[in-house]
Amino acid sequence: MTAPAAGGPPAGAGPTDTDWAAAVAAVRGLPATARVLLICHVNPDGDALGSMLGFGLGLRRLGVRQLQATFPGPPEVPEPFRWLPGSDLLVPQDDAYPDPDLVICFDAASESRLGDLVDRLDKAGTALVLDHHASNTGFGGIHLVDPHAAATSVVALGLLDRLGVTLDAEIAACLYVALSTDTGSFRFEATTPAVHELAARLLATGISPGEISRRIFDTRPFGAVRLFGEVVGRARLEPAAAAGHGLVWTYATREDLARHHQPAYVLEALIDSVRCTAEADVSCVVKQSGDAEWAVSLRSKGAVDVSRVAMALGGGGHRFAAGFTGWGTVDEVVERIRTELPGALLPT
Ligand SMILES: [Mn+2]
Hints:
The protein is an alpha/beta fold. The chain has helices spanning 17-28, 46-61, 118-123, 152-162, 169-182, 193-203, 209-217, 222-233, 254-259, 270-274, 306-312, 330-340, and strands at residues 35-40, 66-70, 102-106, 126-131, 142-145, 236-238, 247-252, 282-290, 293-300, 316-317, 321-327.
């Protein structure tokens, strides 16, 4: 895991006036010929893509002409997000400016989430980081990291406002996708009054929350429905784990995906089908990402700080939603989680 860089944000504190001013100056000071590259984390989710593309549309409104957006790995955007306004900004990572004047990074807690794009941070004239993970390692040059923000899109809109960009329906659709995915459709603890006030601002542009929700949460191929049936059917409940708070977990292999002809992104929603288990505070989904490599998602209902578990195992995230990459067999990965759980109990 990357050590916190000197000058990184102190844990828990949001951006200062100085940080905001530096970010505004970095954008306003761009010459007309500047090349701006927007990047986000690997396996981009609604917040990563929505914040990045919504902000990109804002930059376009400000007159930035040489503008690209990209993310590490294969360039395919998960089907539920392909309609997002601003998707024409996306380029495959190999086509992204090798040495942009400004790089802006969205929703990535550490450089390890940026894959091969991490070199752009070093080669860019200025690197601006927008994020909301408390575990953010402080990489990059200018930090707008607010651990109290429900989504990176909250930070993105804060910067767009300070840049004088007028919110329109296209920008709002992107930011609404980001906000609604990271708050679990406004169900999670992070859904503060400020979140609803922000949602109201976005909805006031005329976007349709019903249509957006249907597209991103409620539309899946039938093969994904069958796949979920199998994978949820093999879930295991361990009531004694986490000092009696309980653990429920399941796993999905690449073979499971192939058998049902499904792309990996459909498994993003799997954790929601598992975490409803009443008898477990902690839920876990282990998804195969390589021969002996697994992408692990962790959720907690409040008794356990799963970001501590994830950080102990090389990942990061939020107190009640975190993840890491595990190696070995499924049983080995789950055993490591079991071992970390008692040390991650929150005070009652
Ligand atoms: Mn996020």
